[in-house]
Automatic annotation (TrEMBL):
CDD domains: PSAT_like. L-glutamate binds at R42. It is found in: Cytoplasm. Residues 4-348 form the Aminotransferase class V domain. The modification N6-(pyridoxal phosphate)lysine is found at K195. This is Phosphoserine aminotransferase. It catalyses: O-phospho-L-serine + 2-oxoglutarate = 3-phosphooxypyruvate + L-glutamate; 4-(phosphooxy)-L-threonine + 2-oxoglutarate = (R)-3-hydroxy-2-oxo-4-phosphooxybutanoate + L-glutamate. It comes from Blautia faecis. NCBIfam families: PRK05355.1 (NF003764), serC_1 (TIGR01364). Belongs to the class-V pyridoxal-phosphate-dependent aminotransferase family. SerC subfamily. Homodimer.
Length: 360
């Protein structure tokens, strides 16, 4: 067996320890004589898996009691519609557009009401986070929407926007569990788990209880109503049971590692190794305004497309894979999520140094 350093933006690297555990339990989970894949979602064994996963997540994020944790399907993209369908009572919402995912959410919301773009960083290819301290928040806005970490462009909100009392909704797909957060500042925090937590196919939505009502837009399907899933403990229909199980293992791993304070420390340390090199390199440079740099997704370029392609190809041969930038941006991107060990980032920087010398 040989493992590579996988810098994919998602689906992405998972902790080796977790992969080994789920492999060990593949044929016989905890004396049940079957894999979790083969198990009824109504069984006592699975109920314990989902309850434990929720309990551990609540502990990790210090989630207040007046928030529900929902394990949903449809990917992060389905939330782009579910959020307006469930929250747009006045049919008005304000969007801060800091990248492609925020833009998609903004465009989707236009189907359901008046979505206002109250700030954007598109003028400079989303390479920064706009000043959000005094935005023209709509008086009747049902919520203010952000994408907190921009996976494609590598920016992160270091400070939450001033929503002037309006409910904040945040897509945290690519920074989920990367550092501590104050859940009480949000109405909804949600993210696809395939970036920083588990296998693809599930979203975790953490929602303040007063936002979960029957008063949704007319025509909202049962399956797209938060209340359906909240009332059923995420077991209204068959959930992505195997994904919940693997995510639960990752929560245990995070707790064992020391929780989110410790992850933040590690993530800062890892990102610093790469950013420090980018700041000193003559060949490679980062594409993001330094103060807005993400700890999770690090885009960089040489400024020469052929050189970029050569780098990506040679890196892959050296076991450093999935470094190609997003198809809309080009260049390179290293995603260095929780499960990427420091040794992986060190190996990448060592390789970049060598490449720079050879191509000077
Ligand atoms: C990947 C990603 C999405 C889309 O996720 P899907 O699960 O594929 O729908 C949305 N938002 C952000 C920030 C992402 O990184």
């Amino acid at each position: 067996m040989s493992r590579v350093y996988n810098f994919s933006a998602g689906p992405a690297v998972l902790p080796e320890e977790v992969l080994k555990e789920v492999a060990d339990e593949m044929m016989d989970y905890n004396g049940t004589g079957m894999s979790v894949m083969e198990m009824s979602h109504r069984s006592a064994a699975f109920q314990e898996i989902i309850d434990t996963a929720e309990k551990d997540l609540r502990e990790l994020m210090n989630i207040p009691d007046n928030y529900k944790v929902l394990f949903l399907q449809g990917g992060a993209s389905q939330q782009f519609a579910m959020i307006p369908m469930n929250l747009m009572k006045n049919k008005v919402a304000d969007y801060i557009v800091t990248g492609q995912w925020a833009k998609k959410a903004y465009q989707e919301a236009q189907k359901y009401g008046k979505a206002n773009k109250i700030a954007s960083s598109e003028d400079k290819t989303f390479s920064y986070i706009p000043d959000c301290s005094d935005l023209p928040i709509s008086p009747d806005a049902d919520y203010v929407y952000i994408c907190e970490n921009n996976t494609i462009y590598g920016t992160k909100f270091k400070e939450l926007p001033n929503t002037k009392g309006k409910t904040l909704v945040a897509d945290v797909s690519s920074c989920f569990l990367s550092e501590p957060v104050d859940v009480s500042k949000y109405g909804i925090i949600y993210g696809g788990v395939q970036k920083n937590i588990g296998p693809a196919g599930m979203v975790i939505a953490i929602i303040r209880e007063d936002l979960i009502t029957e008063d949704v837009l007319p025509g909202t399907p049962t399956m797209l109503t938060y209340k359906t899933h909240a009332d059923a403990g995420s077991l209204y229909n068959t959930p992505n049971a195997y994904c919940i199980y693997v995510c639960g293992k990752v929560f245990k791993w995070l707790k064992k590692m020391g929780g989110l304070e410790e992850m933040k420390k590690r993530n800062e340390e890892k990102a610093k190794i790469l950013y420090d090199f980018l700041d000193s390199s003559k060949l490679f440079h980062g594409t993001v305004v330094p103060k807005d740099r993400s700890l999770m997704n690090v885009p960089f370029v040489t400024g020469d497309k052929e050189m970029d392609a050569k780098f990506v190809a040679e890196a892959a041969k050296a076991g450093l894979v999935n470094l190609k930038g997003h198809r809309t941006v080009g260049g390179m991107r290293a995603s260095i999520y929780n499960a990427m060990p420091k040794a992986g980032v060190e190996a990448l920087v060592a390789f970049m140094k060598k490449f720079e010398e050879e191509n000077a």
